[in-house]
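Q: Here's a chain of 352 amino acids. Please give me its 3D structure as tokens.
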Amino acid sequence: MHALAPLARFGPLVATDLRDVTSDPSALDSSGFWAVAADFEGRLTCARFGDVRTEPVPEPVPGRWRGPAAGDWTSSLDRVSYTAGVQRIREHIAAGDVYQANLCRVLSAPLPDPDGADVDELTALLARGNPAPYAGTIRLPAHGVEIATASPELYLRRAGRTVESGPIKGTGRTAEDLLEKDHAENVMIVDLVRNDLGRVCATGSVSVPALCAIEPHPGLVHLVSTVRGELAPQAGWSELLAATFPPGSVTGAPKSSALKIIEALETSPRGPYCGGIGWVDADRGTGELAVGIRTFWIDRRAPDGPALHFGTGAGITWGSDPEREWDETELKASRLLAVASGAYEASGRTAG
């Protein structure tokens, strides 16, 4: 494999000149500019870069990214297993174990050209085929982190002592597709995020400036809420991550019960999917971490050779229809898998 230099890209921000890598979250309150990748299972990689600049996301170079063909992908849960899992969660809800739980599956495909695979090239394709507010690259091959994300969801934004989260719950092709179930699900998760932030924010400072706003994205719409608070004295990134991770929108409510159900039903680790991906500027006291959804990552140590992974899932409530939830996971994946396959590039138009 040719050596790819460490790099992080978040929208117009580009960071190079790797200085330091740590798994200690307290480093995010020290100094410098950090790229942050937190796996759903808890592995944290914080990389400090010496050179940070702004530049446009490069145009994709035709043929530079070689992605899997549409038929190459396999799913950790097939349709039968996934819909059975949805029904099992409904049984847990009926028993009072949980109100809502996210059920996810990981899609995997062999990389056609592992030596030439550069996640930043995939980010360039995604920027054209599926623009997203929290798009980015973290490329640290020596540390096993190669991520390209087109995340639409804010996990944590920090400006000084003010912190904000933007949970997404509720997805449809159009606003007319959104059901009462979607609104109920969003409100449940807002309560959970308020509770999480309340553990590290000053008493009475947590508010909900926006509830169930309809936000359009390529090929679909989401319901998005905003939860905001002021960090309590002495609380920093370590405490903030400990109180809020994994993100509530991709776990369920109550979170502890949902995590047990997820562990029992899902057959593959989520990895960067549903974790946290973004940047922290410790010198300025700012940062922005996305929820790791609409995210691709390369695993060069996969048993059958280097593989590209992508996760998709849906929030399950008592009102969930198993087939509809499977279809939602397909809707979330189809456009991005087409972009990653090069279908966008080949057709010269947005893949859908």
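Q: Can you summarize the key feature?
A: The chain has one domain: 7-347.
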